[in-house]
Design goal:
Elements: H1 42-45, H2 61-67, E1 75-85, E2 89-92, E3 98-107, E4 114-118, H3 121-128, E5 136-147, E6 152-156, E7 162-165, H4 170-181, H5 187-190, H6 193-196, E8 207-208, H7 210-219, E9 227-238, E10 248-252, E11 279-291, E12 294-302, H8 303-310, H9 314-318, H10 322-329, E13 336-345, E14 353-362, H11 365-371
Length: 378
Amino acid sequence: MYPPGAVKIISGHCLRALNNWKLLLSENHSMVKVCSPYEVDTKLLSLIHLPVKESRDYYSLADIVANGHSLDGRIINVLAAVRSVGEPKYFTTSDRRKGQRCEVKLFDETEPSFTMTCWDNESILLAQSWMPRETVIFASDVRINFNKFQNCMAATVISKTIITTNPDTPEANILLNYVRENKETDVADETDSYLRESINLNSVVDVYTVEQLKVKALRNEGKADPFYGILYAYISTLNIDDEITKVVRNRCSGCGYIVNEASNTCTICDKDSSRLQSFFLGFDVLVDLTDHTGTLHSCSLTGSIAEGTLGCTINEFLAMTSEQKTKLKWQFLLERSKIYVKLILSHRARGGLKVSILSCKLADPTEASRNLAGQGHT
């Protein structure tokens, strides 16, 4: 888990490995010398890519998902490829302790997306070095839990976890070949993975008004975790038919992030957009959502979620005339919709609240009128 030259001394327990010997260090009789990679025997460097567990001793992601509750709380090994690495999120606990977390999306031949969360500084730093769709990891001794809110299985890096980056094993090489062969396929669906985060919309049941969401956001100040809800609201701003507002952007097929237009590169993967096969067009629309209590400004509607909302693919949209785009816009403006939203506190977002739309469909009038009050979820 640690790069050449790094030494970690762990007190209280020993990490279980395949060998049957221990290295004991004491302050009085031992000395640790940190040497540079240039001083290390090259034969030793190859050991960095050998997992500490038997190379076939792991669960596929599909097996974890299929076993569900039976693996809840279990500590297992995982072999998977990295789909995306989130930015570290900082938080303060109720007893004023500061912490951080980082979510990594994994995948393999059997499962398109699976969440692994890092909580300690060392694993978070390690995760930041991984390249989406290029890095394979063998994570030994991760804890598996069932996330009741997201209604899915997830992995957590714990104190005894050891992560081997790009392991040199037959199983890892097979997975890496799979990743390379499928790198450019189905990338459009991955654009929204960092928004959806494997959320089962059926698990989102709380109905809010705009005002109630803003109040809840204020109460959540200092918390890094997103929260979710349902709005029965109007799309009050939808600029898809003017020449000034840009609603279609290039995204990186490796990580799904928007390409920097000035440099024509992905700032995450550092890929040149002249390699056309590494990029794809996707919706990136900002809309305002309004109900009888207020407005949420600049809500993000992107990728396949936008395609499903507008009822057209990106190519069909680009082929439309301005008149056709205007007609499409007025199918949604001032029509009440049932909207699933994800909200994150962010000082960089307008009003300090980043709102992402997970689903948006015209609402059933009877259902909407029954839920307009928001059921008091403040």
